[in-house]
Structures are given as C-alpha cells and as structure tokens.
Fold this sequence. Notes:
Histidine-containing Protein, Chain: A, 2 domains, three-stranded mixed sheet, 10 helices, 8 strands, elongated
Amino acid sequence: MLHRLVGELMTTAVVSVRRDTSFKDIAQHLAGHDVTAVPVVDDQGRAVGVVSEADLLRKQESQVDPGGHLAAAHLLPAERAKAHALTAEGLMTSPAVTARPQWSVVETARAMARHHVKRLPVVDDAGRLVGIISRGDLLRVFLRRDLTICEEITTEVLTRALGLEPGTVTVQVTDGRVTLSGTVPQESLIPIAVRLSESVDGVVDVTNHLRPETDTAAGTSRR
C-alpha cells in the first residue's frame, strides 16, 4: 500500500531563526507568520532546537504580579534561565525533536503525541532542515476521496495483499467509513482484511460484514 509520507505532506517554506536571533525578532516571526514555534538552525542549516510561544512566555511568567494578587511563580532553574534569555540560543528547547521525510503519518503522529508538540521540524540525513510538519498537515490524509480509498482497498488490500478474487468482497466507502461485505476463503483472513483496511490513509472506521466461505457452504447444504 502507498502510505503518504512526511516528505509529501510537509511544508517546505520553513520559517526559521538563528541562535543569535533576538527575543523580539522571534516574537515578530511567530506573529508575522501565524505560527506557534520556529526551529533554530546553525550556520550549516541543521536544526539545533525549537523556540515556542511557551518559551517566550517564561519572561511574563517570571515577573512579579503588578497587582500584588499572585505569589511569585516557582520556576525550575532551566525555566528561570529561559525567562532571562535574550536570544534563541537561551530560549530554545534543545535538542530539537525532529521528523524525517520518509516517516509515515502514524510514526509522526505518535512522535508529536509522545513529545506533546503540534509540529516537528523535518531534517535530512545530515540533520539539515528541509521542512516542517504540523498536525494539520497530517490531517490532510482524511481529505482523500471515498472513491480513491475504495479503489486502494480493493486493489492493494484485497487483490494484491490477500490474493482474493475480484468481486468476492464488496467495499463501500462513505465519508471515510468503510464497509466490507462478502466472503473470504478462510475465517483467519477476516481480521487481516479489517486491519489492513484500517491502515489505509484516510480511513476513519471499518465495519466488518465478511464471512468465511465455509459458512456459506454450510448454510446452502442445510437448505
């Protein structure tokens, strides 16, 4: 099956900053490009860290409440250092959590969830920044047309992967929800067909109405 990779979904026009980019310039980059974080690159274009809105807000968080209603925030040493930093060098979270162009949507989504981030810089084998992938980019797989999903399940899953005869299984797709109906030679193929169909890009859910051919034969003999 042809899973969509990060290299196909990522944005290649990446907004990035250098280690010596000032606090205010970073804030202007975030606001001007409507992003919540920017990668930090070195002189060779390698991603060395990421500065997010949360990193910049450490400065406000560390300040005394002007109204005197709140106690001083308790910051860890690393957080206090960021609160007083003036450039990307001191503000960034390093090393950068990155993705690779050959990663799948599943692998990338899991990395985002594991590190609690909304986007990942994408780097090549040398660590150079080549793009950025966001949650919104990953969600684009769910914009695939129902007909395209149906054709992929029929051709790639049922015919090529499982070797089923055309027409033995009917595939219906509505708004990304797949229904499998018909017969398969062995009952053990049913969970495999369901699992492979679920893995097709753009599939939201799979409803299984498959039956093994032995059940069909038994039902015919009883009649």
